Amino acid sequence: MEEERSNRKRKRPRRRNNRAEKSSNNPKHRDQVVNKIDGDEGGDDSGPSGAPPAAANRRVSSAFLDKMRAKLSGGHFRMINEKLYTCTGSEALDYFKEDPTLFNVYHTGYQEQMTHWPEQPVNIIIKWLKDRSPSLLVADFGCGDARLARNVKNKVFSFDLVSQDPSVIACDMSNTPLDTSSIDVAVFCLSLMGTNFASYLREAHRVLKKSGWLLIAEVKSRFDPNNGGADPDRFSKAICDLGFASVSKDFSNKMFILLYFKKKVSCISFCQQDSVVQVPIKMNFFSKQEKQNSKNGEIVWPELKPCLYKRR
Length: 312
Prior knowledge:
The chain is 45% helix and 19% strand. The radius of gyration is 34 Å and the shape is globular. Helix 3 (53-85) crosses helix 5 (101-114). It has 10 helices and 9 strands. The termini are far apart. The protein is an alpha/beta fold. It has helices at 2-24, 27-42, 53-85, 89-98, 101-114, 121-130, 147-150, 197-207, 232-242, 288-296, and strands at residues 138-141, 156-160, 168-170, 183-189, 208-219, 244-250, 256-263, 267-272, 275-280.
């Protein structure tokens, strides 16, 4: 028995040696062993993918820095976005005048947010304009990168807080350089941001011609009363009290709503002996409440909650 045990002990090393010999004949295993030995001998001469560790470290460092920059940029965008929703237009204008680079930070973040939207409201407005006469004069309040102006044949007056293009006019949207009753279409595409947004709409009413169009695209959550948003009917009523008539509402998109209004006409024009005579309307075109609101300048505007983006 002792002899058999000693024989087994002597045979075991041979089986291990045989396995080692078979493994050494495997090219893949041999290369792994060689690389392991080379790595052990060479110290820091190679990285995880065969590249020098300095280059590999640079790649890892660059990716890490890019990720951190993206986080910082996103945080900066959310800060600026909240500022714009919680201050007046004149305050926002001064804010960007002090540091115009913040405008780039904001719009870079804004464009990144828009990539998550299945459809862009500006594209719907572009199509709406293309279906109508190119002779219509358009005012784009809060134009951003002036995409609307670049995609239609109409003459478009583009307004925003900062001008980075000769075609964009930098101003407070409650006080544009346009003449009274000079515009056919006024557009607010995700731009009713200031706490004094009502003054922007008053300015649109001033510059619009009689029967001129007012188009508003806004984030849908701002008009969800169940989640702190404004009642869309109350908002539409306030605009009508300003002197507009509601034409249509589109709530079909899950991200934004579209509201279409036309400026009311307060007098009738007719021809008499080759001359145009303006006669005030005698019928009840405006309600008593609308007349009273117009007289007193009192319009009840619902509060539009800020659209604050969550950290992703």
